[in-house]
Amino acid sequence: MYEELGKFGRIEALHVCDNLGDHMIGHVYAKFSDEEEASDALNVMNGRYYDGRKMEVEFSPVTDFREARCRDFDEDTCSRGGFCNFMHIKPIPMCLIRSLEEDCDEERRREYARRMDR
36, 38, 52, 96: least buried by Cβ within 10 Å? Predict the structure, then answer.
């Protein structure tokens, strides 16, 4: 998902929900550094299929994900499990994020160079 969204611009944060409730399962939240890039991603990705599922992409009213996270889950003490109404965020290692950022930056540079050569 990071690589697909990274084609549109720099991603400041990516949150993948690990909840099991119908209203949260499969949710991914991406914060772009530029609003126009986020809009481009929304327009292109909405209705596309990813891993066999049709995506419904929209802007989120959540601006501070710290308030939406389950603090108990972060401390490994959430008694509600996957059906908690607060976000259980899948941990993503920083080394993986850095590697994906570098790959996406390089791909955007190559795409820009291809457009300039035309």
Answer: 52
